[in-house]
From TrEMBL:
This is Adenine deaminase. The active site is at 196 (proton donor). Zn(2+) binds at residues 13, 15, 193, 274. Residues 8-323 form the Adenosine deaminase domain. Catalyzes the hydrolytic deamination of adenine to hypoxanthine. Plays an important role in the purine salvage pathway and in nitrogen catabolism. The lineage of its organism: Bacteria, Bacillati, Actinomycetota, Actinomycetes, Propionibacteriales. Its EC number is 3.5.4.2. Binds 1 zinc ion per subunit. The keyword Zinc applies. GO terms for molecular function: hydrolase activity.
């Protein structure tokens, strides 16, 4: 087995709803007496092909309709945890999309109870710690993000922080400046997707207006040398997702990935899986794919794995255990 597959690592960019494998879609549909508009697992897996971020999001939101009960959310986490632990993931900070569930009638309490129970089971079964980051859907009204944050206030002890995801272009981070200010006052950590399909100006807004602790993706930052300089001097972590960028056609193939240039520029880069069920690989698979397609050395991978622990919001006791 490739040692990069099992190299100990933290995963900092993982949408738990994006770990929904076709087998689990069908199993949960059966349990909840729902019909899936695909003939079988293979037909659904074949549909996991995308032209861009929005074409992926259409299927991503459709599939998560099978998630109905606490037990469904708990099973989603334990299935992911088994796969991640087998690929060296020792700590994960998982995104979830509260509005994608509340908007279809699933109460936030059900989502939170299921996810936290899944984390409890996963950490009992594996050498894996985990935390939750609630993401706002940037393509829904800003007022809804405010009311979602109000609802999350009742669960603040179960959260590490907040993030921003969904369709990026046309929805700049600055729309959410007040939401982020309020979340900071609640003691939450702040991250945001920026510079995946959107321009470098969105990354400037994420750091200067939202005040993020990490930038999610940022694969386009190399287009702006002043931005690279700023990220380097701030030691701002970037959570890159190589296989996602290829599957969503942000890059023609992995040989175009700017990882080497980012490392040479002294950026704090990490390797993550984003939506592994949809994009063809978990965290370790992303390390292996980079090694196959880019002239990176073992030292680079060891550095990226160390960055993942350094850039995490892990507590001090667990950090000492892991590093
Ligand atoms: N980008 C934006 N939103 C998302 C993604 C992504 O890669 N995955 C799930 N929601
Ligand atoms: Zn993402």
């Amino acid at each position: 087995m490739h040692d990069l597959l099992t190299l100990p690592k933290a995963e900092l960019h993982l949408h738990i709803e994006g770990t929904l494998e076709p087998e689990l879609v069908f199993a949960l549909a059966r349990r909840n007496r729902l019909t899936v508009p695909f003939a079988d697992v293979e037909a659904l897996r074949t549909a996991y092909r995308f032209d861009d971020l929005v074409s992926f999001l259409d299927l991503y939101y459709a599939c998560m309709d099978v998630l109905r009960t606490e037990e469904d959310f708990a099973d989603l986490v334990t299935d992911y945890a088994r796969r991640a632990a087998a690929q060296g993931v020792r700590h994960v900070e998982m995104f979830f999309d509260p509005q994608a569930h509340t908007s279809r009638g699933i109460p936030l309490d059900v989502v939170m109870a299921g996810l936290t129970e899944g984390i409890r089971r996963a950490s009992a079964l594996h050498d894996l710690s985990a935390g939750l980051i609630a993401c706002f859907l940037r393509d829904r009204p800003v007022e809804e993000a405010h009311s979602t944050l109000d609802a999350l206030a009742g669960h603040v002890d179960s959260l590490l922080g907040i993030g921003l995801d969904s369709a990026e272009v046309g929805y700049p981070p600055s729309l959410f400046t007040e939401v982020y200010r309020d979340a900071r006052q609640m003691g939450l950590r702040l991250v945001a997707h920026a510079g995946e399909e959107g321009p470098p100006s969105y990354v400037w807004e994420a750091i200067d207006e939202l005040g993020v602790d990490r930038v999610d993706h940022g694969v386009r930052v190399m287009e702006d040398s002043a931005l690279v300089q700023r990220l380097q001097s701030d030691r701002m972590p970037l959570t890159l997702c190589p296989l996602s960028n290829v599957r969503l056609r942000v890059l023609p193939d992995l040989s175009f990935h700017p990882m080497q240039a980012m490392l040479s520029a002294g950026l704090v880069v990490t390797v993550n899986s984003d939506d592994p069920a949809y994009f063809g690989g978990y965290a370790g698979d992303n390390f292996v794919a980079l090694a196959e397609d880019l002239p990176l050395g073992q030292d680079d991978f060891v550095l990226m794995a160390r960055n993942s622990f350094d850039a995490s919001f892990i507590d001090d006791d667990r950090r000492r255990e892991l590093m």
